[in-house]
Amino acid sequence: MVTDPSDPGNTDAAAPADPTEQDTPREECGVFGVWAPGEEVAKLTFYGLFALQHRGQEAAGISVGDGSQVLVYKDLGLVSQVFDEQVLASLRGGVAVGHTRYSTTGGGTWENAQPTFRTTAQGSGLALGHNGNLVNTAELRDRVVAEGADVVSTNTSSPANGCDSATTDSDLVCALLATHAVDKGIEQAALELLPTLRGAYSMVFSDESTLYAARDPYGVRPLVLGRLERGWVVASETAALDIVGASFVREIEPGELLAIDSAGLRSARFANPTPKGCIFEYVYLARPDTTIAGRSVHSTRVDIGRRLAAEYPAEADLVIPVPESGTPAAIGYAQESGISYGNGLVKNAYVGRTFIEPSQTIRQLGIRLKLNPLREVIRGKRLVVVDDSIVRGNTQRALVRMLREAGALEVHVRIASPPVRWPCYYGIDFASRAELIANGLDMDGVRRSIGADSLGYISLDSLIAASEQPRNRVCAACFDGEYPIPVPEEDRLGKYVLEDPGEGAESAAAGPAETVLPSGYGAEDAVGRP
Ligand code: SF4
């Protein structure tokens, strides 16, 4: 059975207080699972999700299996907003699944929060959390409809897709898994279902007593296994293992299904691995204190900065980062160039999703909601400003203008990733192709558009070299357009493939390149965004 004490009536997507935040790539989701009977699994999951908050800030949820039932609690908001002592104390059991969500398929509504839940015909519960994005969602929806698989759901929405309630790719998988588990059990059903999924998926799911974890054959999104003294943990990032005191055991292999219960840990291969890890995890998505495929994210970012300085040197007085994600690359740039490093921008650490609709007056503040210049540091200086990426360019345009107004003599922008020219279908929400500034302009065009004195992006070769991954084992499709997993036309609709696109249609269309070059302090970033 499922108990969901949170309020499903709250279906409004949270409004961002900082419109310029929407000019950055949006993380996908964070997943966490723990099997540790006798431990406070809900609390462990809470702290695991807390460490993964950067991967999704729209919703959070935890399911707990106690041997006889599965309880799910989820709601819109940050992990610390959704859960308190009382709620966590009510979630008792030996196995838990946690999820922090940013919507990559399905809008940011309560119904789409995870873990998603289904009951099998025998009344057994199944809770599932998913990081990544499938690219055969339309096909899976048709299967769910054909098989009548959308069994018992907690969802209440009525999307216009002919499928009773599933509004996310994850929900479809949960429905199919619950249906197929009737005859063969969840483990066998998963081994048969997983090879039919296309796209990126790092999934954690459980019934009343067993924890499962699966990673797509390309291993696009990270997923790691950790050991507790009396149990096991799986998580999107190693940093989440650290925070709950779990030791890193290994990565879950691409094409591997793990099952953990009182019989121990079982591993099975459901597909041959063809590793294509997301290179953008190193640039921006993952925490700096995480290690992916044996390589420290922080060290990668510092190395990117060094290589960037070699590729695009600058005559300048001071290197400053755009905090926080630009910081390690700025340190590397300063080390390599010999130019002094300093903090010229102060970030408001508490800017996030506040659930407060910003007024038009507040929207006009744009970037100043997030970053404020240290005038005494900047005044009279030739600056190198290091940022992680440029998506639409509005943030950088606002930033350059703000730094000049604060007294900078010159502003040289250096970017720790190559130009983003293609959308991601594997779980990262960039702008639509038409909105990507580098899709419509060459480098000098982008430089002029953002108003910088000079501009340099790290080359793709150098980025990959900094990650220390073999070229043929990474996905870099948003930079080079080479998608390792083919994307059917109908799945190129993006996150609203299962829903009435409504406002999202505008950004979902991957139309021909058109450059949108509004001006101002980044406030215009909010226009036309889902
Ligand atoms: Fe990562 Fe870009 Fe590939 Fe998406 S397209 S998985 S963001 S490298």
Question: What would you say this structure looks like, in words?
Answer:
- The chain is an alpha+beta fold and 530 residues long.
- The chain has two domains: 2-281, Glutamine Phosphoribosylpyrophosphate, subunit 1, domain 1 (4-Layer Sandwich), CATH 3.60.20.10; 296-469, 3-Layer(aba) Sandwich (Rossmann fold).
- Helices cover 27% and strands 22% of the residues.
- It is elongated and about 70 Å long.
- The structure holds iron/sulfur cluster.
- Iron/sulfur cluster is lined by residues 220, 278-280, 424, 426, 428, 475-478.
Number of domains: 2
Strand order of the largest sheet: 3-2-4-1-11-10-12
Rounded average pLDDT? 84
Could you tell me which ligands this complex binds, including any ions or cofactors?
Answer: iron/sulfur cluster
Q: What is the second-level CATH architecture of the largest domain?
A: 4-Layer Sandwich
What is the first-to-last residue Cα distance?
Answer: 34 Å
- What is the percentage of strand-forming residues? 15-25%
Largest sheet: 7 strands, antiparallel
Work out the helix count.
17
CATH class of the largest domain: Alpha Beta
* General form: elongated
